[in-house]
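Appendix B. Extra example for self-study. Work through it before the problem class; the solution is given directly after the inputs so you can check yourself.
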Amino acid sequence: MSGYTPALMELIKKVEATRPARVEKARKGEHFPALTMEQRQEWLRQYHPDYKNDGRRAVEVGVNKGTVYPEEVSTLLESKSRLNTKCVDLSKADYETDLLVIGAGGAGTAAALAAQEQGLKVLISTKLRHGDSNTVMAEGGIQGADQEGDSPYFHYLDVIGGGHFSNQPGLVAALTNDAPLIIHWLESLGMMFDKKPDGRMLVRHGGGTSRKRMHSAGDMTGAEIMRVVRDEARNRANDIKVLEFTPAVELILDEKGSCAGAVLYNLETKEYYVVKAKSVLIATGGFGRLHIQGFPTTNHYGATADGVVMAYRAGVSLQDLDSTQYHPTGAIYPEQNVGLLITEKVRGLGAQLLNTEGEQFCFPLEPRDVESACVIRECMDIGKGILTPTGRHGVWLDSPMIDMIHGEGTVRKELPAKYIQFKRYDIDISKVPMLIYPTLHYQNGGILINEWSETTVKGLYSAGEVAGGVHGRNRLMGNSLLDVLVFGRRAGLKAAEYVKTAKLGSKLSLSHVEKFNKEIDKAGIDNGIESPLLLPDYAPEHVKARQIS
Amino acid sequence: MADDCKKAKTLATGDRTIPPPDAKMITIYIMGREYQVPETLTIMKAIEYAGYSYTRGCGCRGGICGACGTFYRFLGDYRLRSGLACQTVAEENMVIMQLPFFPANRPGYDLEQMTGDAHEELRRLYPEVFKCVGCGTCTRTCPMDIDVMDYIALMKRGDLKGAAHKSFDCVMCGLCASRCPAQISQFNAAMFVRRIYGKNGLPVAGHLAKRVEEVKAGKYESMLKEVSSMNPEDVKKLYVEREREPDMAEAGKWMPKDTSKL
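Solution. Structure tokens for the complete assembly:
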């Protein structure tokens, strides 16, 4: 096992020393006690990055003026459009469509399929490839109450309790009610769910669940969902057209203020296109690549909050965007894997979190924000974290327990992707534990929607990570894959209904963008940033200094 | 430097590589052009360190999306190697070329209409699969260590279940197809096989179909309406008092004490 340094191998001996007794207890169903509701709040207040005041400030423009967001979010919302609106000829449309879907991840693709089934022509605009999204990266599973001892009612309680009762109740009801429909839909599309020989879904617990309702497809559930729905969209290419490497950069409104399309930008030819659309869905995903508070992120390359920016300029309200999910288990070793998501399924299968002494310090399946606070506390306050050779702090995630509890070979079978990702660096996670620390994972808040994915602008819908309210201030595992599909599908259905009667105004306009730019000037802000950002900027300083043109 | 030479402020910079001052530098060749980069970076981060900004060839940065398939050789070594740029560590004298896109055959199909022999459907859609010459280049090329040639052999034989499971880890990067002398688009054929096996080969979840009927009949609407209009303190109480299904309980067998909300 050359992947760990001798010093770390020495520490692993402490983990191995306590393991037999821990496994014995786990077999009997004995757990490290969970925190009380009061302790949860206390731990969050003291240790969770969301609850700290530094690195956060009020945004000075727009509908949510005065609301405190992370510095990076406020700065982005106060930035000017990258589009020179004066030069856009809105009298000619390069594309016309019933529904324009902005973003080609899980939510956008589900919406396209649902709308197409209702007879709509759909145009999908995406800045990378079809399927490049956080959906593809979700590993652990998708929740849905389909077992006899479970129901949407209990799923509802888990979601809203996990969100500390800050979720929008109507959205939670829609999410949990539709969950079995979504699982069934995926099954009918030929998704390879993990099942028993008689067809029964294999289900597990996730953090904060009262029932085992986590469905999976190995440890690449999101990738399997994405490739299945994308494949289906490709089968319907006559009605669903996808423009890759062509993100939207501004929404277009008509004279009544209804959404009427968007301006797209071809990243390769640098051309702008005008799309006239009877309805528009923003499904652009989250903001992980803003690296809120300097955290590494599990998010894909394009997660730069473009949809939030465009919608905000069009006057759409935001909610809970000050709330960020730090996934408790991001890899911190080896350096090549830093930020990499270690699925919650690892803990669902029984792996425990341990400090440098090899001792447990928390219940392994607390809601994610609480679990993250527990890890931060153990490292920063108690001082029993493990220090890596590159100066990172973390704790052990004791994956070898899984084989001991469920039988030899379980790790390789249930966690194939993780197994490979560590094996590359000579770490066999079925034999030695992983080192983890919280990593920036999910945008909890976003665009304000109702239970049919409608925003406050007519004809404009939003679904998936870019929208807020479903998960409140904390999301449970297995509810994001569900969220993107439930609200994506609902957006597609609602848009189909709307399109049948909607009459687009005759005058398309970008004046809301000009107005917003003026408001920024009036507030005396000049931060030099143009947005949507579209892509991160990872060229190092010595290169930036020479890029002088 | 003059003040007006300073670059504008930028956001989204958190993955920039900041090497330690004593970092050992290595020489790599990006599409033949020589660059010095710190050692231990992945190919992706090394290319960014050299100053490239990705549009194509970069996706999840976590080894699952298949955007960053890469071929490379070492100077003085005839062997052609492959990997994902986000998962492979850059090494001294590596000559690198990414393959962000490769044209592949993908005939459309209607899964709902495919109730007959799946093997025949495969033969109809992807006749080239049956022309595999068994050279094994695909298997040697796969960055996910999938035995591609073996799943193609299973497909030829009609063992679609085997092929579906064997190809399951595929990230559809396309490197196999780029090297195939029989011109097979293995990853697209495998996608089709997994779907038709998932739909017609895997047993259907009976409990799920039953629950779907209940949802469609509106069984849970009133329950959800009631709990979503309760005052938060009462919901909190329900949340705290809810029963937790034991970890080792067998799915479908366990029942809560209170069955009124099922």
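Self-check: Chain B has ten helices and five strands. If your reasoning did not lead you there, revisit section 3.
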